[in-house]
Amino acid sequence: MGFRENLKSELEYQDMKTKELAEKSGVNKRTIDHYLMSNPQEPSVTNALKIAQALNVSVEYLVTGIDGYSTKNEETLKAILYDLAQLSKSQLDVVRPMIHSLVRKV
């Protein structure tokens, strides 16, 4: 996946709208919308960095879909994902805010 797909996925994961990302990152909403189009232009390094910081992810993750930290802990993450897949939607709704709060403290 490329920047477009990873950005779209992260926005969905964080339940964030492009307007909110624009406000948090300082990148124009129309520019972000353009990055999400089917044939987007890649963002400048400056905009990619602003967007990554606003989403609390690395630029590497937005570009490649892989975070250096994640690859080091692949087996642990696979086990956690397996456990999460066993949960019901209502259980996931409880767990998701917990995970988000922990991630934001790192």
Description:
- By secondary structure, the chain is mainly alpha-helical.
- The protein contains eight helices and no strands.
- The protein folds into two domains: 3-68, 434 Repressor (Amino-terminal Domain); 73-105.
Which short descriptors sum up this protein?
0% strand; 106 residues; 8 helices; mainly alpha; 73% helix; 434 Repressor (Amino-terminal Domain)
Please render the helix and strand layout as text.
Blueprint: H1 3-13, H2 18-25, H3 29-35, H4 45-55, H5 59-64, H6 68-72, H7 74-85, H8 89-105
Quick overview of this protein structure:
This protein has 106 residues and is mainly alpha-helical.
- The termini sit apart by 25 Å
- Annotated CATH homologous superfamily of the largest domain: lambda repressor-like DNA-binding domains
Number of domains: 2
Helix content: over 70%
Q: Secondary-structure element sequence?
A: HHHHHHHH
Q: Ranges with pLDDT <50 over ≥5 residues?
A: none
CATH class of the largest domain: Mainly Alpha
What would you call the structural class? mainly alpha
Named CATH topology of the largest domain: 434 Repressor (Amino-terminal Domain)
Using the CA coordinates, give the radius of gyration. 15 Å
The global form is globular
Level-2 CATH architecture of the largest domain: Orthogonal Bundle
Q: Please, what is the average pLDDT?
A: 87
Give the helix tally: 8
| Main beta sheet | none
How much of the sequence lies in strands comes to under 5%
